[in-house]
Amino acid sequence: MAARDESRRVPFGKAQLIGLLVAMAVACVLPFVVSNYRVFQFTLALVYAIALLGLNMLTGYNGQISLGHGAFYAIGAYVAAILMDKFGVPYWMTVPIAGAVCLLAGFLFGLPALRLEGLYLALATFALGVAMPQILKYKHLEPWTGGVQGIVIVKPDPPEWTGLTQDQWLYFVVLATLLLLFAIGWNLLRGRIGRAMVAIRDQPIAAQAMGVNTAMVKSLTFGVSAMYTGIAGALGAIVIQFVAPDSFSIFLSISLVVGVVVGGLASIQGAIYGALFIQFIPNVADQISKAAPWAIYGIFLIAFMYAMPTGVAGLVQTAIGRLRRRRKR
What we know:
Blueprint: H1 14-29, H2 36-61, H3 70-87, H4 91-113, H5 118-136, H6 142-145, E1 151-152, H7 166-190, H8 192-202, H9 204-209, H10 214-240, E2 242-243, H11 250-263, H12 270-288, H13 293-307, H14 311-328
Antiparallel strand pairs: 1-2
Helix pairs in contact: 2-7, 2-10, 2-11, 2-12, 3-4, 3-10, 4-10, 7-8, 7-10, 8-10, 11-12, 11-14, 12-13
């Protein structure tokens, strides 16, 4: 377990720092060398990366299985959309508000879920994900949610001094939010709370015997995980400019779980790999076969799991470890 758990790794070395700087340079240059549509796609990938990090905190680091995180994504998206459409709140202000609402919602959902573990918790969260689209269509909520028609959002204009297009500006807004949340998550997972989360995942009885308040840690983890997902939902709504109940079906929740597993459980950078997978692999599958794109998607998924059982992050870490051992010889 220690081999794949980033919360127990040593701080960045020179090679990791260089790799991070190169990745940052590529991310900053990317929106100027691709089309606006590709910028839009990469922006959504960054949005999914935020959601995947939140889900990975819950599942990878704390061991709580959630098949309904698409519900928190939907809550964040609708909070942002309603605030912008009904109250004229600036788009940048809706993001932290959506995160706060989802933090509270996740914490409250996590309290009764303390009685559930494993498949029972998975089924409870699955029920939440299935119910959310129907709740959003509820007739008494239509004045706020727009019912089945949803809500259309006006895409924000960038500041004139930037000289950026709307898509490029939103890309950098999401990228900055991603970096901030990843830094917060990295510090959280390496601290006392992060160690408590991992201890509960690995040895819950021993963790409780050592004085860890398992109920509070698990509920807070659920809340923080929902907060990350809600922030991602708010950013996704702003980028897409539209929210509707059918956009947040149970398939979204399943896709987030797929992204976490493909990227790598208990891996911070795995959120990036998983986000790229769930954003681009369906498009690749559709280009390969218009008749049966999801069959091709399934083949891709099986191939990834067979070739990389610990996720892309696990494969990368294994490759780096082998290179280090060869250099020492």
